[in-house]
Amino acid sequence: MGKTDTRNPCTKVCRFDAGECVGCFRTKAEVKGWKRLSDEEKAAINERIRARGGTVGKGGLKRRRKLDKKIRKLEAKLDVLRAKQKAIG
């Protein structure tokens, strides 16, 4: 990867709320016109997405889902332990 990151930040969620995608944080105009944007514009959008805590590229969604699954399992174990602790007194 060179100086600028021009990868498409789509995470395949594609739901819009308040004018931007909840998956990739791009506006409808940015999503629709992605192929026509200059490399500098694409890099600026990707930088804005990263600054918001988003990920660029398809791998981010898969990793996020995997981590969400692990978190749910750990929360379930924590609930069991809290119930045991409460039963003890």
The tally of structural domains comes to 2
The helix content, as a percent range, equals 40-55%
Q: Determine the strand fraction and express it as a percent band.
A: under 5%
Largest sheet features: 2 strands, antiparallel
Question: What characteristic shape results from the CA principal axes?
Answer: elongated
Kindly provide the radius of gyration, computed on alpha-carbon positions and rounded to a whole number of angstroms: 19 Å
Span between termini: 57 Å
Count of DSSP strands: 2
**Element pattern in H and E:** EEHHH
Our count of helices gives 3
The strand line-up of the biggest sheet is 1-2
Structural class: mainly alpha
State mean pLDDT (0 to 100 scale): 86
Low confidence ranges? none
Provide an overview of this structure:
There is one protein chain. The chain has helices spanning 28-32, 39-51, 59-88; strands spanning 16-17, 20-21. Strand 1 (16-17) and strand 2 (20-21) form a beta hairpin. The N and C termini lie far apart (57 Å). It is mainly α and 89 residues long. The chain contains 3 helices and 2 strands; from the N terminus they run ββααα. A two-stranded antiparallel ribbon has the order 1-2. It has 2 domains: 1-57, no CATH class; 61-89.
